[in-house]
C-alpha cells in the first residue's frame, strides 16, 4: 500500500505505475493499494498527475482517492509512505503495523545517507515538479521490484 496526503498525486502515481510494472513482469502475485491520510473519498487525481502518468503510459483517469480510515491498511504486508510524516501518522494510528511501515525511499535505500527519504508533494506546483516526483517514484519502484 502506498500512502500520501490526498491520494491524488504521489500514492496514486506509485499505485498505478507499480501495477503496470508488475503486469510487464508477469507478476500477478502482488496486489497494490493506495490511500491518503487526509484523502477526500472518490476525489480524482490532479490534471498534472494525469498528464505525467500518460508519459509513463499509465492511465490515472479512473483513480479515486481512498481515505486511510476506509482502507484495508491493517491487511497489508508492506506500507510505503511518501514522507516520514506520513509514516509517523500511520504508526500513531496503527501501532500494530510497526515493522511494515516505511517511506518509499527508505525501504529501497534510495539515498544511502538516509537524509533524502521524503518524496515531496507536487500538489500546487507546475508539471516539471510532477515529473521530478514521478521520476523519484519510478526509481523507487524499479528498486522495489528487485526486492519483492
Question: Would you kindly provide a written description of the structure presented here, covering whatever features stand out?
Answer:
The protein is of the alpha/beta class and 148 residues long. The chain has one domain: Rossmann fold (3-Layer(aba) Sandwich), CATH 3.40.50. 41% of the residues lie in helices and 8% in strands. It is built from five helices and four strands; from the N terminus they run βαβαβαβαα. It has helices at 10-24, 47-55, 84-93, 104-108, 127-147, and strands at residues 2-4, 34-36, 79-81, 101-103. The chain has a four-stranded parallel β-sheet with strand order 2-1-3-4, with helices on both faces. Strand 3 (79-81), helix 3 (84-93) and strand 4 form a beta-alpha-beta unit. Helix 1 crosses helix 5 (127-147) and helix 2 crosses helix 5. The protein is globular. The mean pLDDT is 96.
